Amino acid sequence: MAIKNIFGSSYRQDYLEGYANGQNPKVQMDNEKSSLGYISGFNSGRMDYEEMNGQISKGIPTRIVTIKILEDFLLAGLLGLSIEETDDYTPFQLSVIAKWYISGVENYDPSHSTYLFDVLEDIGIQID
């Protein structure tokens, strides 16, 4: 029995395609794509999606949480900013967002945010 090369470009390409499809809650696994890379990528993408947004079987939320959105909430916590725009998130999503935001708040240092605000203001970005 030959071992599949998981470091090969074909596996990687199939994995990334599967991962992207798994991240999209409206896409089901493509049964015609039976490569190990695609299946592994799809399953990994779907698990990541469901960790942030809840199980697809319970419905697709109005707003989709991504790593970028979670990083924005983490940064808001790090800078001591309040979060206001949480409309249309499900309770599950809000619990995930709260974990990231609180993680930022726990590491909040007023001197860092003051310095950052000064730098942003110098380049023309105003933070309220």
TrEMBL record:
It comes from the Bacteria. This is Uncharacterized protein. It comes from Flavobacterium nackdongense.
